[in-house]
Predict the structure.
Amino acid sequence: MDRLAIIGGRPLFGDIPISGAKNAAIKLMVATLLTDQSVQLSNVPDLADVRQLLRLLEQHGTHITREGDRLSLHTANIRSTEAPYDIVRKMRASFNVLGPLLAREHEAKVSLPGGCAIGARPVDLHLKALEAMGADITLDEGYVIASAKGGLHGATISFPFVSVGATEHAMLAAVLAKGTTVLENAAREPEMADLADCLNAMGAKISGAGRSTITIEGVSHLTGCQHQVLPDRIEAGAYAMAVGITGGEVTLTHGRADLLGAALASLRETGLEIEQMADGVRVKKNGERLTAVDIVTQPFPGFPTDLQALFMAMMATADGVANIKETIFENRYMHAPELARMGADIHVDGQLARVRGVDRLKGAPVMATDLRASMSLVIAGLGAEGQTMVSRLYHLDRGFEKLDQKLQNVGALVERVPDSA
Ligand code: UD1
């Protein structure tokens, strides 16, 4: 397994291009199963998760053409309505093929995704939403077996708490259902509106995406379309924090500050200068130490849980004490002990983490259990004295396109060390 060697302490200067959002791209790819016509997606990042999903779509019968960041997906006929365990377990979001398969073929057999390093992550809300739309669901040997004889129908679904995946899944299923579906307490993440924009371009009738109530009037069929994936807000936040810990000035080309939600204000409060320019987001940090800032993770527009680990790394050398509260996932502090190995002073108590800023982190060999936690170790390594070796690079390859290259281009001393070295 490849590792990333980082020599810390160099300020970053230059441009980092922000890729298309992973979390939007994979839902858009799933949405293409809803039509027998060809859908062209552009600005699709080249990531392990995208490749994994392509494997799954291919076995459902999708014809795939890829040229750079452009992906053409065409599922003239669904060849198989089964999504096997060995693919779904590797990428939870692939579970969302269930809704489109059910909507188009009225039956599906999809593996349950299982747990993951950041918590149990059940799919009960997904299944309840599909049942409300008329799906008959049973569980058998780790698989969801679903059918909807005569097709799905519209329903009013009120989510007990906000779930990104369940909102998207319900939206994907409802577009071809008979009648109107209303989603209450829906997720408002920007990827939601991106998905709705694409589905509407395919002929769906969705209004309110990006707000708490989404209304979907079912249509009988969808057509092909062209859609550009929106820029990745988590990647933009990550590189902004890299500048925060190292100092320097970087333009995140194609980045959009408005997609950062509450994280924008929190990052500015620490002392980072962030400005939206015509060509992207300019991030600047002078030589002074950052100020410690408290955060609470919340659904959008609150502070995103996907930036929590990274923010903790940045706070490790800030001036003062930062109190962090993780409210979305129950087990998302796995990076804390690794950061502590680099000299961070972090005390975790349930949902809370208290980070007392130290003068300097020291490089160390570290490893992480998930994608965002791995990136927090990269941020820490960029700010640390000496060498940090981040192992299990495959986590980062799942979600950060050309990470080593992008960092090298702004002056970071990072190098991918192949397994055999
Ligand atoms: C998505 C993002 C992930 C992000 C998360 C929260 C993708 C591919 N992933 O994940 O990067 O961290 O949103 O912003 O877009 N839950 C249930 N039952 C359900 C569904 C969810 O209990 O049926 C719980 C989860 O365990 C979690 C919380 O709800 O505690 C929020 O999860 P959710 O918003 O669904 O996250 P994902 O869609 O999995």
User: Anything to note?
Assistant: The radius of gyration is 21 Å. The chain is about 30% helix and 25% strand. The chain has two domains: 2-19+231-418, 22-228. The chain has a mean pLDDT of 95.
